[in-house]
Amino acid sequence: MSKIKLRLDGVSKTFGSTIALNPTTLEMGEGKFLTLLGPSGSGKTTLLSIVAGLTQPSSGDVWIDQQRATTSPSFKRGIGMVFQNYALFPHLTIFENIAFPLRMRKASTTEVDKKVRQILEMIKLPHVANRYPRELSGGQQQRIALARCMVYSPSIILMDEPLGALDKNLRDHMQLEIKRLHVDLGITILYVTHDQEEALAMSDRICLMNCASIEQIGSPNDLYFRPKTVFAAQFLGESNILPGKVTSVGDHIRIQCDDGHVVHSSATGRYAISEKLASMVRPENLQIVSPDSTLPNKLHGRVSDVVFAGGATKLHVKTSQGTTLVSRQPTTHINAPRQGDEICLGWRSEDTVLIQAETVKS
């Protein structure tokens, strides 16, 4: 088990009567990649700023490498930061941009030369050492910003929406690049984004934030397949939510939905008859089946909309009870459902996730 690199103990922040961050406790292991994910105003940037020492918490403590850092200035925390706008010095060559933090730390000329050239090789840009930032593409500038941050081996690297200014193809490439550097160097990264796909693709763990608090924290797999709240289910990917109550318990949980449908789940846990729950199923788990399918969950409806999205097609299916479900199917020209078609959707009981009633917003 990795040692604790960062610990937040009851950290909060208020601005007058405005709560920017409720009391928050969080731990991060050495060499891990933790993403703070959430909508605007959820508290993720405030939390990052407190870790960086740019904002003083209203309460609680920040611990870095087992040392209390709550009141320590940023430059004494051993932290590196990468921003969305790169923040490179336009009047310095790429070599000197990367060398800057080493020179500030009084590194010898030999050490500076060695480390800068090593990191340029690592990011696969040794040939740009004598160029200026304006002569590089956006993706190359972002890699230089990463190199400048990593060259002096900071204890933790903080990244605040670093890929937000890039186009999709370049952003996808840089996600893989950052993940590769994280693995190769064993660096500890605290990353902020509002992009769900980015968080799922890059993180060891995701800290999902909502309304200035942690909503759920866990692996990408946990948050996607086992969301604990409706917000988590809906923010990370698409979901179909069917509120209802328990009518049978045992090997399978039976839910009588508010719209009259019956849903089966193989979820484990202590559930009581008449307990209010919501059933959640992901669109990719809804299959088009025949009415006599043996799948435990089946719903009949009419296709109200077809959304083409390249390799996948989303079907919006409205049932006779007025509930609309979204199913994601591989795109095909053969027997593809059209708007107005009547179809039957089915799914396994294992694909039904149960969410407690107190998280279900009416």
UniProtKB/TrEMBL annotation:
Keyword entries, A-Z: ATP-binding, Cell inner membrane, Cell membrane, Membrane, Nucleotide-binding, Transport
Alphabetical list of InterPro entries matching this protein: AAA+_ATPase, ABC_SmlMolc_Importer, ABC_transporter-like_ATP-bd, ABC_transporter-like_CS, Mo/tungstate-bd_C_term_dom, NA-bd_OB-fold, P-loop_NTPase, Transp-assoc_OB_typ2
PROSITE patterns listed in its UniProt record: ABC_TRANSPORTER_1 (PS00211), ABC_TRANSPORTER_2 (PS50893)
Record-linked Pfam families: ABC_tran, TOBE_2
Top-level lineage group: Bacteria
Gene3D superfamilies for this protein: 2.40.50.100, Nucleic acid-binding proteins, P-loop containing nucleotide triphosphate hydrolases
Protein name per Swiss-Prot or TrEMBL: 2-aminoethylphosphonate import ATP-binding protein PhnT
Species this protein is from: Paraburkholderia aspalathi
Lineage: Bacteria, Pseudomonadati, Pseudomonadota, Betaproteobacteria, Burkholderiales
